[in-house]
Amino acid sequence: xxxxxxxxxxxxxxxxxxxxxxxxxxxxxxxxxxxxxxxxxxxxxxxxxxxxxxxxxxxxxxxxxxxxxxxxxxxxxxxxxxxxxxxxxxxxxxxxxxxxxxxxxxxxxxxxxxxxxxxxxxxxxxxxxxxxxxxxxxxxxxxxxxxxxxxxxxxxxxxxxxxxxxxxxxxxxxxxxxxxxxxxxxxxxxxxxxxxxxxxxxxxxxxxxxxxxxxxxxxxxxxxxxxxxxxxxxxxxxxxxxxxxxxxxxxxxxxxxxxxxxxxxxxxxxxxxxxxxxxxxxxxxxxxxxxxxxxxxxxxxxxxxxxxxxxxxxxxxxxxxxxxxxxxxxxxxxxxxxxxxxxxxxxxxxxxxxxxxxxxxxxxxxxxxxxxxxxxxxxxxxx
Amino acid sequence: xxxxxxxxxxxxxxxxxxxxxxxxxxxxxxxxxxxxxxxxxxxxxxxxxxxxxxxxxxxxxxxxxxxxxxxxxxxxxxxxxxxxxxxxxxxxxxxxxxxxxxxxxxxxxxxxxxxxxxxxxxxxxxxxxxxxxxxxxxxxxxxxxxxxxxxxxxxxxxxxxxxxxxxxxxxxxxxxxxxxxxxxxxxxxxxxxxxxxxxxxxxxxxxxxxxxxxxxxxxxxxxxxxxxxxxxxxxxxxxxxxxxxxxxxxxxxxxxxxxxxxxxxxxxxxxxxxxxxxxxxxxxxxxxxxxxxxxxxxxxxxxxxxxxxxxxxxxxxxxxxxxxxxxxxxxxxxxxxxxxxxxxxxxxxxxxxxxxxxxxxxxxxxxxxxxxxxxxxxxxxxxxxxxxxxxxxxxxxxxxxxxxxxxxxxxxxxxxxxxxxxxxxxxxxxxxxxxxxxxxxxxxxxxxxxxxxxxxxxxxxxxxxxxxxxxxxxxxxxxxxxxxxxxxxxxxxxxxxxxxx
Lengths: 383, 501
Description:
The complex is a heterodimer.
Chain A: E1 18-27, E2 33-34, H1 36-43, E3 54-59, E4 69-75, H2 78-91, E5 93-99, E6 113-120, H3 131-145, E7 149-153, E8 158-163, H4 167-173, E9 180-181, E10 183-191, E11 204-206, E12 209-215, H5 220-228, H6 239-253, H7 258-265, H8 270-274, H9 278-291, E13 300-306, E14 309-314, E15 323-327, E16 330-334, H10 337-343, E17 349-351, E18 359-362, H11 374-382
Antiparallel strand pairs in A: 1-10, 1-16, 2-9, 3-8, 3-10, 4-6, 4-7, 5-6, 11-12, 12-13, 13-14, 14-18, 15-16, 15-17
Helix pairs in contact in A: 1-10, 5-6
Chain B: E1 9-13, H1 23-27, E2 33-36, E3 41-44, H2 54-58, E4 64-68, H3 81-93, E5 98-99, E6 114-116, E7 137-139, E8 163-165, E9 169-171, H4 181-194, E10 198-199, E11 216-220, H5 229-234, E12 237-241, E13 252-254, H6 261-267, E14 275-277, H7 287-300, E15 307-312, H8 317-326, E16 331-335, E17 344-345, H9 346-351, H10 356-369, E18 377-381, H11 387-396, E19 400-403, H12 405-411, H13 433-436, H14 441-466, E20 481-483, H15 488-494, E21 497-498
Helix pairs in contact in B: 4-14, 8-10, 11-14
């Protein structure tokens, strides 16, 4: 029998449920900074997790290999590694590979081997397919068809580090204080089942998209069935995965701006749509009519990131917490305000966004320190 | 010929309570009660009683009790009383046994083997009395994606016509002629009040009802009764009827006696002539013919309204439904084994077709596998009894539900299965003017609207309990269902897991 910690979802539950701490920080001017701050911030929310999963996503991480897809792959066995490496060699141009450096850390038990590969697509892909689609398909293939291996992340100039343990332990294990990036997200996990599988920790990623998620998506069943129509295979039986794929579908494949995609995931109520001006009303109504099956229903907060953007979003009745902090070019998103204040005590402003209201940080655009209050919205509408 | 049929019911009249007022005599349309002037006593011909309870409920002194005739046959699993009596009836008439309403046999009712989920601890349930809870549903073809103008981000995608429902429950096709004008008025007014749709059935739309057009589905069936441009223009949705659950593959026959002046006008046939609906539509012998009719109707109405196609749930429903969607249907309607009728051969009603739960599950799955589920809405009907059934149907994948029998019960129907006789004592399934006035459209509309209001509140409670605040998050979400007492094959077809797993 296999070690239960090495298998995802050993009880075959519909989905893995977890509650969590989230943190995201971005320098919208593009300056790279170390992970020391975010590690302290996420550690400050220690009690929101239970040591069964922690992880980080870092953007602007590998400037030296910025043109190559950085695949972080977890191995549970030597055979798994051999099989995947043969697969990768066959389908990509390999620029560089190494085992991800780690240090012995108390609290990290039986870690799997984690390797990183910098890969070019070259002439391996069919002409009509984009490089991104080619890579995404190969990642799906490894995760669903090849055993004993799992791809943590697959974007360029970014990576996901995650595993079993508290986030600060994971950070210590992977020596994250030594890395630099312009955008970091972090996650501490409190799963209600699944004793813990390294692949089941957050962030979840596909290409350079990552998601950290706090909540339970009660619409998971239909979100999953809808995405399956578009060729996504939900392999992890966790609701976070559908968030990642939904964003991938809406933004990458269907070309919607992230603010509009957020209106699909957490749409306004029909009554509110009826009150919008005609053009906006039609857009919002059409989005809900077409993408109703992608509405994420149930309590959630997510921080979604990809190159150049970080988005915080809660469900439309805000059943899970999200606080925003702004200081100059820095944008902070966190489950708790105290964690932001710990590493940046003199914020320009901190506030709690409305349910379903996306908070978007964008490279080159300073974050707006003044949120629109409900009262202001009403008065400006009246004008 | 002396009949060998025993009476179905016994009628007991309490002599202490009976005041010989003869209300029962006037109320009974089956000629059961009569007044014996010589003895100054009201008496009964029990052999005529169908168990509709009209007399018992209208007796001012509550003097009448109707009960089943306990005359027992020798126990026999094969030769049950119904089997024996059907043979007796045929031996005495030499005809096809006719019946009304839906299949009353013991085939498994899957709704009763499915249970719903609720939130506990890991996510909060939502109180619909305090938080918004959305049942709004749009029927019609949806595009694969939404496209925006590259710079302005204005909407570029123009969706096919969509029809909005405030409640995902509509009134199914029941034709004028089969049911009375007052029933149509009740349905139309209730649908308008509740923001849903009612369906004309195949008998046309009475001129008085054009005012309810924006809540009306008009049917185009094999007899083409009452189909003309204004009829199509008046409607919100046009429905092509291929078949119905109570009698898949069988046509219809409205006897000439029911074709009154008004019915004749509405159906556009001579008064007193039989209205025969052929078994197939004679211009649809194949899927490409269906496509032609769909587009003929769309052309005729300038692509302003969705076209729906209704079939009876049969063995290859999934493949047929896929063909219908590809042929251009914007809504597909599946009517299951328990779907009811004004009149059908009993052997067909009770033996042909498949349960709606199975048909729905397989059609929804098939359309998703083929990536065309968004191209048509799915509406199901056939024995939906309450909001629990509605919630389960939506979780299996339905966009909306049609009710027929439930609506008639709201109007007074006691499911006595005599629709085919035209003698409905409740004044529903008849065109006899003395009987039809028993349904007052104002009261009828109120009863129907109340039913939908009650179901809406219950649906909101069900959704809130699951921690969901919009119906689209339940639609096709089979993880919120579990099966009880079902085999692996049944669970597999339903796409539902066993309770406890």
